[in-house]
Amino acid sequence: MEKQSLLSLFSSNPDKYYKVSLFDEKGFKRQNCKLCGKFFWSIIDKKSCPEHDNYSFIGDPPTSKRLDFVNTWKELSSFFRKNDHEVIQRYPVVCRWREDLYFTIASIVDFQRVMNGKIVFEIPKNPLVVPQMCLRFNDIENVGLTGRHYTSFCMVGQTCNADAPGGYWKDKCIDLDHSLLKDVLGIKSEEITFVEDVWMGAGAFGNSLEYYVRGLELGNAVFTEFEGDEHNYRTLDNKIIDMGAGLERLSWITMGTPTSYDATFGPVFKKLVDIIGIDIDSKAEFLSRYFRIFSENYSNYQNDPRILKTNIAKELGLSYEALEKIVLPFETLSIIADHTRTLLFGISDGSLPSNVGGGYNLRIILRRTLALLARFGWNLNLEDIMDLHIEQLKSMYPELKEHKNDVRTIIQIESDRYSSSKERMYSIANSVLMSKKRPGVEDLIRMYESDGITPDLLLETGVIEKIPPDFYLKLAELHTSHESKQIPVIETVSGLNPTRLLYYEDGSIREFDAKILKVLEGKYLILDKTAFYPRGGGQEPDFGSIEGIKVTDVIKQNEIVLHKVQVPSKDHFLENKIVHGIVDNVRRRSITKNHSATHILNSAARNSLGSWVWQNSAFKDEHYARLDITHHSALTKQEINQIERTANEVVQRNLPIMINVFERSNAEEKYTFRIYQGGAVPSNNVRIVNIEGWDVEACGGTHVNKTGEIGLIKILKTERIQDGVVRLEYVSGNNAFQYVQSQDSQLLHIAQSLGSSKEKVIESFDKVTVENDLIKRKFKMLVNRFSDNMAAIVSQKATKSKSGLKIYGIYDDEIGDDYYIALGEKSIDIDPFLVYVALIQDQERIKIIVFVGEESRKIIKASRIAKEISLKLGGTGGGGTDKFAQGGGKDKSKIHDCLKNLENLLTDILDSSEKNG
Ligand SMILES: [Zn+2]
Ligand SMILES: [Zn+2]
What we know:
The structure is a single chain. The chain has 27 helices and 32 strands. The protein is an alpha+beta fold.
C-alpha cells in the first residue's frame, strides 16, 4: 500500500474524511501548501503548511500559561478526566506483550496484541488517556543537538474504540484536542493548523489530522477506519481513535525555552548545572537565538549539522570554536539528562544493559553517557542523576521509586565494568592514533562491537575529529535487523477439527480411547482427542504407547496434535479405527515436577537477585531441566544456595497451584505483564498458573496440584551462558533424590579410598593434601640435589658438533618434567656451550624441553629449536625465550629419529638463519 495513493483517496473527498464540525463552527478553511502541496485547515489564510513555519514560540510562547513537564500532564489529565476519560497508568516501556518489539514505541502499542499475524486492539477503558513513556533508538545522535529529539519521551495517548460504549469519532476528538490547546493551554484558535495525512499498519488504515502551532507539531489524531488496501477495503467493526501528543512538546510551547529539554528536564538541569558549575542562565538569550535558527534549518543539514553550525556561527558573528564553547556543554547536559531518564525507565521495567536484544541499546547510551562525563570531566554519577528524575516525576510515575535500588545496582555494575575495561580501551585508541589511519564508520562500529570503545572516547583521545552523524543509527540498525523478532504467522492444517486436549480437561488421565482421524507419512497419528502432552512452551512431550506401539514424539501444529509412532509397516494404523493410548506416567510426573519447579525457581531467583530477573527461556525434560534467566553476572555460591533454599521452602510450604483461564486483558490487569515469562500469548484467553502467594505465569504446561508433591529441588550447575543471561540446571522429585544418593555414594567412595569415613572425609582430605604438599616439596629438594650431580654427567656425555655446539638429547617416560627442567637449568649453568633437549612422555603428549647455554645462545635460540622439534613430532609449535623454551608433539614414532638426528636439525636451523641474515 502506497502512502501517496491513500492520501489521494482521502484528499479526493475531504468533506467526508477530513472535515470535522469544528472546522465549520470556527471557520477553519481548507488550503493547499504552495511549497509542498499538502492540504491543511486554518482560520487565517496561509501560503504554506506549518512544516515551513519558524519556531517563533522560542522566546515568545503563544500560551497564557507556563507549564513545566509535570504540570502540563496535570492540566491535561484533569481536562480529559472532566471530559469523561479514564486516566490510566502507563504500561511498561519493555514491551512484553508483543514478540516483534523490544520496547513500547508509541502509546497505541499498549493496546495492540498480535493474533494470527494480525494486530488486534484491546482498550481496557473507553475512552482513555495514558501518559505513555516510549523508547526509540533511531535518533540517538540527534539528542541534544536539535533541541527536540529524545531516546525516551512521553506520548500522551487519547484512545478510544468509536463503536464501543463511551466511544466517539472524529468530530468529538478534534473538538477535544482544539479545546485542550485553546482552553487548557491558552493558545488562540488562529494559531492552530490541522494538516491532512494518512496512517497505515498491520492491514488497517485511516486518515489523520496533525495539529501544529508555530511550526511545532504537537499531536496527531489517527482515525483507524478501514481494513484491506486502497483498492479493496471495508469499514472496521471497531474503529479506533489513536491521538498521540508529545508531552515534551506541549510543555515546550508553553515555556518558549531555547530547547524542549529546558522545559522537560527543568528541575534536573538546575541541580546538575549547580553541581558542575557551568553558567547557562547568562547565555539563555544567546542559546534561544542559536537553537531557533538551528531547529528551523536543521532539516536541510541532517547529513552534516557541522555545516549548519558553521553558518550560524557566521550569522551570530562568532568563530566556530567560540560557538561550540557555549553550545557544547548545554548539548551534552541534554544528552546526559535524556539518556539517564531512558535508562531509568528501561531498567526499572526489567531490561538489562547487555550485548543482546533490546538491552543493546541501553548499553550504548549508558556507555555514551559515561564517556561524555569523562570527556567533560564532570563529577556526576548516574545514580544521582536518576534520583533527580525520580524526584521530578514522582507525582506522574510514583512506581519509579519501587525499583530505585535495583536500578542503582545495575548502573553500578555496568559503570564498574566500563571503567575496568577503560585502560584497555585507551591503549587500543592510542595504537590507532599512532597508526595515523583515520577510522571510518565501519571501523568505529567494529571497535564498539569488539572492545566497547565509544566514539566519544575516540574523540577525547583525538583519534577522530567528529563522530560520524550516522554512527549510532547504523549501530542500532545492526541490532534491530539481526535480532528483531518476527510476527508469527500461523499456517492452518485444513479439513480437520482441533484435537480435544484431554490433558487440560483432567491432568490425571493416563489412558484413553480415541479415533484415528488421519495418518501422515505412515507414522504420524492424528486422533480426535488425546491425553499426550505435545512438545511446547519448553516442556518436552509425553511418551507412551498407542495400541502397544511406542509413541516416540508428540508435536502440535496449530490446533492439531501429531503422535509419532514406531510402526512396523506403513499401513499399520488405519483411519477411523478406535485405538487405546497409554501415557508413560513416570515420565509425565517427572516432567511435570520439573515444570512446576521451574516456576518456583524463577520467582526464587527474582526474589534473591533482583527485579531484573526474567525467564529468558526454559527446558523441561524427564531427568533434566534448565532455566535461563536475565541477570548481569555469574552467580556466586551464596546466591545459588539462597535460590535453592528459597525454592525448597516453597516446596515445603505445600502451596496450592491453581490453573484458571482468564480473558487476556483481565489477566494483564490482575497480574501485570509479569505473567509473560514465557513470551506473549497470541490468544484471547490466557491460561494462568498461579502458585498461590508466590508466582503467577501464563503457561500451557502441566503442573502438580501442590508444591509439596515436588519433594525436592536440587540445582546441579549454573553458568553465565551469554552477556546478561545465566543458566540454572536442576532436577526435582525422584531425580533430585537419586542425585543426592549418587553424590552420597561418590562421597563414600572417596572416604573409603582415603581410609576414612564420610563424617571425617574433609578432615582426611585436608590431611592428605598437606601430606601431598610435603611429598612434593621433598621431591623438589631431591631433584635439586640429584640434578647437581647429574648436570656434570650431562656436560660430559654431550657430543660436540662442527659448529661448536655441545648437544645433549634424552627421552624419558617415567620421571616427569620437573626433574628435567631442573636438570637442564643446572647443566647449562655449568656448561655455557650446551644445547639441552629433553623429550618427556606425558600421557598422550610428548613434552619438549630445550635449554641453551650462554655461549651457544649467541648463534641459536631455544625457542626456535623447540618449534622445529615440535613440528617434527607432529605438533603445532612451541614458545619461550632464547635460553629456555617448551613445545609439544604427539607422534611417538618420531622420537627416536629426532634425538638421533639432533645435530642435523640444529645445523639446518643455523644454515637457515645464516641465509636469512
Ligand atoms: Zn508544505
Ligand atoms: Zn510454565
